[in-house]
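User: Reviewer 2 asked us to show a designed sequence for the structure in our supplementary figure. I'm pasting the structure tokens here. Could you produce the per-position amino acids so we can include them in the response letter?
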């Protein structure tokens, strides 16, 4: 009975991008599709900027601006990796709106993306959203019919 009172609410991971939400199996890169970096989902973007899926802190800004890592107050770590083989673009097509250590809130814009440039230069636009410490957490991927940036829950994360 007391367990019910002390059980923490699962962290909701909100959609950071406009577009089609897909399974990681659909990502044409085994690092993501085989969950080597962790559990998650992917989004095939349909324009717009990358927004924060959680309230938390920026813990990683890739030098090449193609990826960002965030940590929530409960310790959940979220990696957003924009496109595939985008590291080779050396930051072109991306403009960071936050820096390492910055606090962020759900829906806050993190990265401006030139999707046309990325479409022309990268292997794919598909963008994995990964819980990098998912081995320590319980991750539940949600089935998404309509994706609304900053509102749609794509995953929930709780302690094991």
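Assistant: Here is a per-position design you can include in the supplement:
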């Amino acid at each position: 009975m007391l367990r019910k009172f002390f059980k923490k609410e699962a962290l909701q991971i909100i959609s950071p991008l406009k577009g089609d939400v897909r399974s990681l199996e659909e990502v044409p890169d085994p690092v993501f599709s085989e969950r080597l970096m962790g559990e998650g989902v992917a989004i095939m973007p349909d324009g717009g900027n990358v927004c924060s899926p959680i309230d938390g802190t920026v813990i990683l800004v890739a030098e090449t601006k193609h990826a960002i890592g965030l940590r929530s107050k409960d310790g959940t770590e979220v990696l957003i990796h924009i496109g595939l083989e985008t590291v080779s673009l050396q930051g072109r097509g991306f403009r960071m709106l936050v820096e390492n250590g910055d606090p962020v809130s759900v829906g806050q814009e993190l990265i401006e993306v030139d999707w046309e440039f990325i479409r022309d230069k990268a292997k794919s636009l598909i963008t994995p959203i990964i819980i990098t410490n998912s081995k320590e957490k319980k991750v539940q991927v949600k089935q998404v019919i309509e994706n609304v940036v900053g509102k749609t829950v794509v995953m929930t994360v709780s302690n094991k």
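For the response letter, you might also mention the following. The helical segments are 2-6, 30-33, 115-121. The domain at 2-159 is CATH 2.70.70.10 (Glucose Permease (Domain IIA)).
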